[in-house]
């Protein structure tokens, strides 16, 4: 047991540490607990809140009290459905919590793999319409350890593990210059066009309520190491139909009831208990994760504010804000509101919830709402025109939008009227140029100043390569990693204050990370997508000081294939990010740029250092799906990752000519170079010793979590009879949409976690 003050309960200690600022004393206490070892491993059971009334007063959903067992299928169902002899639905997806007698109180309060019991199972179905595109090839690029899994046909039919490998686009004609200068000023006060100060955790993740394993903790720790913290949004379509209840049958923590999912999104009704919020607090205590949660907005006549009431008590400062409404400009198209629902209707409904929050004595914090989260059918200016910012300015902290550059809806939903499926090969080149990020950001540039003037952040609250699951061969290629770096930095340059990459299930190809499917979880690891590498690069490029300001250099005569960014930190030039979207062909494609700091006719003295350090994000081609490295380290190929980088970190040293005030930096084709212009600028972002997480000795020798295969199947992607939907809202891309798919990922259950006794150096 970890030592604790006798007068302080475990719950009090968890709440205190979760709510406390990251002071040296609280961090030391957390570190002491983390490194305490009773033996080779320390097991941590899930925290169970004590019996009796909680400090908040949740309004119990009637659904939690009226379940009856169906004599035909044994399912717990509503009496009204039993009375009408409605057909038995697919099984209720639920995850069970150990009984209080099984629970103890060490600090981290995480579950053991052997303590879980699961009630039901559901089949995972593959995404429709995925084909090998013309001009590409079908290959199996997974490493030898995953060869048998990768060659299994039902696995490769899942979009997350597809074998689609595209052909890299030809080199542009005419070719951009492959030798060009870049001159930057050393003093930020002399530079026009710099962004607002940005945080290293600029790029976070957006996850629906479904499932998490130990590698997820390692992934969060990898980002938090570099950024100081990591931000995660738990919500999306699921938040609109979610209800916090006092309890669920059989001590389950989350229940997804698909029999009520009659709307076009097929998003299940979701009930959850406060256990989920305690679990998020446990994660925050381990890896300094911060959370965005959602307040249901599907029925403003019967408000459900329990999640805000409980989250403030349980998560404290670890909950950053509450999203109110998810893509309201799609409500009418999705039959969530009457035809003709408009900006004024939304303005009025938003006011109903704002007033209810102000009248709720159990919600202490004010001014932390995220809205309006438009997908693009309405313009932000049209919402501003209702008086939204001026009327609700005291209630909002973040002005939000959600957007995807394209969609794969015709392939995912072949009979839904979206026309012919898109050939991924035909759109691959669209992601491999600087114009992609610029075109995504430009529609919002006129709306950002109004948010800034009102003192609000402006965030891209959900995005990725393409809605409706992404494009196989594009969304999971190295090209998407380059796109993610450029798009992320372009948003930062445009004064967005953050962005969240959406995470789907097994039936999407754009995931930054994906758990292994079904029974392969006992022998295979996770699959890390290329865009997760984007988040590492951006975290290190921006640094932990939260003072970094970004400048688009429009380098190489503004060539779309060789963009570059300058990062100023504490008002001084600190780092450069240089991108090469081209793939080497016949020895051509790489470029060398001559860097100069100050000097010449800049009005500044020569400032080029004697040497610089360079980290490279590399892969053989833009079409590569597995062999990706960041400073020579990798998460591995399909089914290989435990959430930690492996390999020896390699940081190149480049000697410069201080007399000529020049430094030659080569960027391979394809690749990204992060150039540190001083030793301090590198030290400020280098990851330090950090806790990593592994499975306990009770699991199998493969060092992975072992759980019921059917439970893992229900945790990601599509599930249940006739369930054909695969990702987030179809309407989230630029083109007009009519329907949105629903549930994809994340029921926040961490299984089999134990902390390694000593921190691992990366």
UniProtKB/TrEMBL annotation:
- Record keywords: Membrane included? yes
Region span, Disordered: 1-61, 716-736
UniProt keyword terms in alphabetical order: Membrane, Transmembrane, Transmembrane helix
Residue stretches spanning the membrane: 739-761
Domain Beta-glucuronidase C-terminal, which positions? 564-674
The record's section on Pfam families has: Glyco_hydro_79C
Task: Specify the domain of life of the species encoding this protein.
Answer: Eukaryota
The secretion signal range is: none
Q: Where does this protein have compositionally biased stretches of type Pro residues?
A: 47-57
Q: Where is the composition biased (Polar residues)?
A: 716-732
Name by which UniProt lists this protein: Beta-glucuronidase
What organism does the record attribute this protein to? Trametes pubescens (White-rot fungus)
């Amino acid at each position: 047991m970890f030592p604790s003050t006798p007068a302080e309960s475990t719950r009090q200690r968890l709440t205190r540490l979760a709510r406390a600022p990251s002071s040296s004393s609280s961090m030391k206490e957390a570190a002491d607990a983390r490194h305490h070892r009773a033996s080779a491993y320390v097991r941590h059971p899930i925290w169970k809140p004590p019996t009796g009334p909680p400090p908040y007063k949740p309004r119990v959903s009637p659904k939690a009290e009226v379940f009856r067992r169906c004599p035909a299928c044994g399912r717990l169902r509503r009496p009204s459905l039993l009375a009408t002899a409605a057909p038995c639905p697919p099984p209720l997806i639920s995850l069970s919590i150990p009984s209080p007698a099984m629970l103890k109180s060490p600090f981290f309060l995480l579950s053991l793999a052997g303590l879980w019991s699961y009630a039901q199972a559901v089949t995972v179905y593959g995404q429709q319409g995925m084909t090998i595109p013309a001009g590409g090839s079908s290959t199996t690029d997974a490493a030898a350890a995953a060869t048998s899994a990768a060659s299994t046909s039902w696995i490769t039919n899942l979009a997350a593990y597809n074998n689609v490998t595209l052909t890299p686009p030809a080199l542009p004609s005419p070719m951009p210059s492959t030798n060009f200068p870049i001159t930057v000023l050393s003093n930020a006060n002399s530079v026009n066009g710099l962004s607002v100060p940005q945080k290293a955790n600029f790029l976070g993740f957006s996850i629906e309520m479904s499932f998490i394993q130990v590698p997820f903790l390692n992934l969060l720790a990898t980002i938090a190491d570099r950024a100081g913290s990591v931000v995660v949004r738990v919500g999306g379509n699921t938040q609109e139909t979610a209800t916090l209840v006092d309890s669920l049958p059989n001590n389950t923590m989350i229940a997804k009831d698909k029999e009520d999912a009659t709307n076009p999104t097929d998003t299940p009704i979701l009930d959850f208990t406060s256990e989920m919020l305690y679990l998020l607090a446990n994660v925050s205590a381990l890896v300094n994760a911060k959370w965005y949660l959602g307040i249901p907005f599907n029925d403003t006549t019967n408000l459900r504010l329990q999640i805000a009431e409980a989250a403030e008590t349980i998560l404290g400062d670890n909950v950053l804000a509450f999203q109110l409404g998810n893509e309201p400009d799609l409500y009418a198209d999705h039959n969530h509101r009457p035809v003709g629902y408009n900006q004024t209707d939304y303005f009025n409904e938003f006011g109903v919830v704002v007033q209810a929050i102000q009248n709720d004595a159990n919600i202490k914090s004010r001014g932390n709402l995220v809205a309006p989260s438009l997908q693009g059918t309405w313009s932000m200016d049209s919402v501003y025109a209702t008086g939204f910012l001026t009327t609700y300015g005291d209630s909002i902290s973040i002005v939000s939008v959600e957007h995807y550059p394209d969609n794969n809806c015709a392939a995912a939903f072949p009979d839904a009227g979206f026309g012919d499926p898109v050939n991924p090969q035909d759109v691959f080149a669209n992601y491999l140029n600087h114009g992609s990020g610029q075109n995504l950001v430009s529609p919002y540039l006129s709306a950002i100043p109004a948010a800034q003037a009102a003192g609000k952040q402006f965030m891209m609250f959900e995005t990725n390569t393409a809605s409706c699951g992404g494009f196989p061969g594009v969304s999971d290629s190295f090209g998407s990693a380059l796109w993610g770096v450029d798009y992320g930095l372009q948003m930062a340059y445009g004064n967005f204050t953050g962005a969240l990459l959406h995470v789907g299930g097994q039936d999407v190809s754009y995931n930054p990370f994906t758990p292994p499917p079904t029974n392969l979880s006992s022998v295979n690891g996770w699959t890390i997508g290329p865009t997760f590498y984007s988040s590492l690069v951006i975290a290190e490029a921006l640094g932990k000081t939260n003072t970094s300001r970004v400048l688009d250099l429009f380098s190489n005569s503004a060539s779309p294939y060789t963009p570059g960014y300058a990062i100023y930190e504490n008002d001084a030039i600190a780092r450069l990010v240089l991108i090469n979207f081209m793939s080497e062909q016949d020895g051509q494609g790489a470029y060398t740029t001559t860097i100069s700091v100050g000097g010449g006719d800049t009005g500044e003295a020569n400032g080029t250092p004697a040497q610089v350090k360079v980290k490279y994000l590399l892969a053989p081609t833009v079409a590569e799906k597995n062999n990706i490295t960041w400073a020579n380290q990798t998460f591995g190929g399909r089914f290989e990752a435990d959430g930690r980088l492996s390999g020896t970190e390699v940081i190149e040293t480049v000697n410069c000519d201080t007399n000529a005030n020049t430094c030659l930096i080569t960027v391979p084709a394809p690749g990204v170079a992060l150039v540190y212009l001083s030793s301090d600028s590198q030290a400020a972002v280098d990851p330090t010793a950090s806790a990593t997480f592994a499975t306990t000795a009770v699991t199998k020798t493969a060092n992975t979590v072992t759980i019921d295969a059917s439970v893992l199947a229900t945790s990601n992607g599509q599930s249940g009879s006739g369930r054909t939907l695969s990702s987030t809202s179809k309407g989230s891309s630029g083109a007009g949409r009519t329907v949105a798919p629903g549930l994809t990922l994340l029921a926040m259950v961490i299984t089999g976690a134990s902390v390694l006794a000593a921190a691992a150096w990366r």
